[in-house]
Amino acid sequence: MARPAPATAGLRSLATVAAPLARFRPPFEFGDFFAPEDTLLCALATAHTLARHADAHDAPPARLVELTCGSAVVALGPLDRWPALRAWGADVDADAVSRARRNARVLGHAERARFAHLGLFDARLPRWLRRRAPDVVACNPPYVPEPPDAPNALVAGAGPDGARHPKRALAACARAGVPRLALSWCSLGDPVGVARAAARRGYVLDALWTAALADGEYTGGAHAYLRTLPTAFLDESAATRHALAPDGAARFGYLLLAGSFVRAADVHSPDARERARAGVRLVARLVRRFVRDGLPALATLAGREAPAGAPPLHAYVVDRWDELSLRAAAHGPVSGSLPSISAS
């Protein structure tokens, strides 16, 4: 099958960098809340962060932790590239922990990966992190705002502005002295507030990944609530909705975000604080320009209009065809045959 229409001009499809998902084919198991788009962005940020650690220390990374690990895609993926790397994962869901352990066995990494039943808000988390002394922590938590009167298992207590989990991950990592962090969040969940929280916790944004996509079942259902939030950035323009969802089903577009962060104390430069502020400015400009200008804002900020001193921005688009392609990359080709349907 071929793409029925050209990808959005000026932006690469996220599906063009989906190779990290190809390793995770059945019998690897995904959980109920797995989404290939944000998982892939977090995996890209994590790969970059591990490589940056290796460059800075002239040695391969030794320890990786994934918080809110789910199926452990992000924790297990780098083990193929880095033979000396060990991985740990933690999740508040006991079923997810069991699934991650099975997945480690499926991939042949059971001896190099360990998983714990531990949530972001567990008081033991900072101590648990310190004991493992990770070179890099990765976290792809729930980050969609949760209407106070309509709790939803999909966002699992993300809070009314959606930033509760990313900010908690930053706090735990700072307390544990984690030197590098790959963190996911989104434009609906106080994106600028999360970037500011990272800077306040002593982290500098080293690189940023973003992907524009249309609302899904839950985000679309929360549309009315999201429109009331000054910290939610979404684009309802017809041009963006048509580009992301030619089927006409989109209510709005929004941005997934994944950042590679380094501890400011490890930035060997007198302008570490200014670099931290530049990262916050990049996130703020990105989400505000997206609301104002739509998809072209991503291409211009990643290219000729990149803010001075800002970290690199890697921008992608996910349209309906890309959504299908990413799921095929993760789940593998369809086997067997479809049943025939006869007219009655």
UniProtKB/TrEMBL annotation:
This is Uncharacterized protein. GO terms for biological process: methylation. Signal peptide: none annotated. GO terms for molecular function: methyltransferase activity; nucleic acid binding. InterPro entries: DNA_methylase_N6_adenine_CS (IPR002052), N5-glutamine_MTase (IPR050320), SAM-dependent_MTases_sf (IPR029063). It comes from the Bacteria. SUPFAM superfamilies: S-adenosyl-L-methionine-dependent methyltransferases.
